[in-house]
């Protein structure tokens, strides 16, 4: 029913159950306060964000008195700021938002001021503006409208019925590249505020009571989610910043532990081996005396010798013969470089497959083919990419690999070997340009889908309300 249609008369007592559907509040008790014009809501952590031209406010609600474990995170556009004098005579400047109020199957827009004054005994006061003309007040009675129950907060329904709200998201990145730009663009399209935070310019006080992250002389706000895009060269520092966010309790799309483990090629191979994920035979040694043995461990030539710090295919060498492998290894040793030796998966023929995993699903996959005559398929080396259909086995392998590192988002690179998929690498900051370009899919949108689902309020355990 539209708000302008005439309604039958409603009777309100001095206290009624109502809902605030646009805030994700299915049931709350409100006291009628005809002495006030605008309604008031007892809100916590009130904080503004978003562009100055269209500022928003974020706050949390504890709709059940005495149950602070029930937290409903809300956001709304600010429509005004007003000085409100409360019943004890104190004046306070409050943000005003507009939202819907629902009663007995009917709903209409109301204005609400936000306050976290502890003096406010009730979670909500209904002012004259909310009490439309057709409502008559029976001041001696209460609950004249259908009674609701707090039990709804213990059901999963509350998560599924939570409305979309504007989130405040940080992208930890130092680069202004396609991926960073897409994260900002797609997030803003969905009404979120996305801030790019340069990881190396973050600093922090490490203490037990009040862990926080600082940036540009200020403490960073509470973010709903952090999307780490930490470059390989700053992994340790980036991971430390991310751990700080984890300590605060901020949802991080990928955790610091998974990022660090995936970046360390040896550690990554050990984790994958333990999870029984197929990968090329790999060996590693630290002492020059073992050159012959290390080759024997992997098998016979041709072999791949890979610098551990390699990216973009730069430190990946194919040694066609045992002799060639020995000289490459000796050369790397002379440079004090760390490397590993790997079985050459010949049948992959200069092609690898990038599976993009987001939220436990392979959302896209592409085949990368190396430039003519190159066994390396890196796009940076002139390779080309196109969308590819993967087998169930490849899908399962990619998912298991992402799960082994506890990564919510991962680019899993695998080779199509005779004996099934062999994982080369799990990338915790996969680029979006190649995969969105070759598959035509909105991958960043899928990432936001999982973030939005993840930051919804959680149902609480049922217990007698006070
Ligand atoms: N064992 C192997 N057998 C066959 N081809 C391989 C093997 N290892 C790597 N390649 C080819 O070389 C390319 C580059 O190797 P890899 O991805 O391991 O190193 P990188 O790209 O330099 O490092 P990173 O992917 O960690 O940034 C792969 O994409 C693949 O095409
Ligand atoms: Mg690679």
UniProtKB/TrEMBL annotation:
Residues 269-452 form the ATP-grasp domain. GO terms for cellular component: cytoplasm; ribosome. SUPFAM superfamilies: Acid proteases, Glutathione synthetase ATP-binding domain-like. Its cofactor is Mg(2+); Mn(2+). GO terms for molecular function: ATP binding; metal ion binding; ribosomal S6-glutamic acid ligase activity. The keyword Metal-binding applies. The keyword Manganese applies. It holds the Pfam family Rimk_N. One of its GO terms (biological process) is translation. Keywords: ATP-binding, Ligase, Magnesium, Manganese, Metal-binding, Nucleotide-binding, Protein biosynthesis, Ribonucleoprotein, Ribosomal protein. It comes from the Bacteria. InterPro entries: Asp_endopeptidase, ATP-grasp, ATP-grasp_RimK-type, ATP_grasp_subdomain_1, Peptidase_aspartic_dom_sf, Rimk_N, Rp_bS6_RimK/Lys_biosynth_LsyX. In the C-terminal section; belongs to the RimK family. This is Probable alpha-L-glutamate ligase. It comes from Pelagivirga sediminicola.
